[in-house]
# Entry
Amino acid sequence: MNVRRSAAVVAVLAATAGVGTGLGTGFAPAALADDTAPAAPSASPSQAIPTGLYGSTDPKFDGVWRQSLTLVALDAVGEKPGAGAVDWLVGQQCANGAFAAYRPDPTAECDPKTAVDTNSTAAAVQALSAVGGHDAQAERAVGWLKDHQNDDGGWGFTAGGPSDANSTSVVIGALAAAGETPAGQKKAGHSPYDALRALALPCAAGTEGSGAFAYQPDKKGGLAANADATAAAVLGSLGEGFVVDAGKTGEAGENAESGSANAGAGTAGECVSGTSPEDAAHNGAVYLAGALTSDGYLKSALAGAEDQPDLGNTADAVVALAAAGDTDATAKPLAWLEKNYGPWAAKSGPAAYAQLILAAHAAGTDPRDFGGADLVAQLTETGPARDVDDYRSVPSDDTADGGGDDGGIATGVVLGAGLGLAALAGAALTRLTRKRRRT
# Structure
């Protein structure tokens, strides 16, 4: 669910221009997932930003993701979205139920060249389920996701693309949000949990990456630990979506598979040898807790920036640790984020604020008093005003709101300023390894 997913999508779209919905199904569109990504091209809007949309930068690569994450975060803290926000999201849906990252003309019919994807679709399902009143649209999106499940039980970023931990996990969250049972959603006899299990590194004490999840296997079938994929897969393995409620963590959720010999054991200590989804979530949380620096943050995996903090991944790790029941391990990264989130979130926009709200919410702290600041107010300021009580009655509005000076896709802490689109695409193609503003 990382804000940086957008930059990886930029690389995919650039590398596959003119390929219709193919979008490079042979490689992971979120190969830079562990990294705080460089700013995407066209950070300034290339066209008027619809007034119902959160964020002021060009939504071409992340409109639905950032809107969905925003709606989910606001709902989690009891805040209604701005006028037209929900209708804007509904208007982005294709007739077949799927969502693309952004459709500039929602009145035009989707066609085979419309770049729909599982991540935007699954995020929209979670958002529509959260705000309520749009069951038909959510059900249609879920139907599309079910129709494009892979034989291994998982999902890739694009329909039919190789399964990856992040996409599979966000779809699990969508199924759960829509009242489905993820464990019962099978293809060729395999459930989404089978797909995640296949991406989990074995528990091997003292071994690098022990207990983590890989994004996808490499060309030789090997698995490399990926912090972003691990944070996502911990939630997926527990049957959780974007929102983790404090006080209800540490046990397998009602949407998860059962059968762990270690369920409820918490995450402190070593990984375990069990093979249940709960065991895999436990092990993933152990890995994340161990990967945090002494200051409490996760490091970027972007080439040349390994010692830089990755704020988005750190926020996601907090949610994952809380979901797995290790609330003690969330204290240090939360404290670090409180002191350091400002420039990153201001630059990255609503999806970043939403991530922070969800992290604070999961850990049981107040997002309205986050290091002395009100994250909810900062998020709402990036979007349309809430000037009505029943926001679902407000029609969407395609007029411009004047844009803004938000700098685009997450830039984190000074990294990646010199990388261009070609470098992003090249990195994605070669590393095969992966989350959604006023942006």
User: Anything to note?
Assistant: The chain has one domain: 5-431. Residues 5-431 form a domain with the Glycosyltransferase fold (CATH 1.50.10.20). Residues 331-348 form the longest helix (18 residues). The chain has 14 helices and no strands.
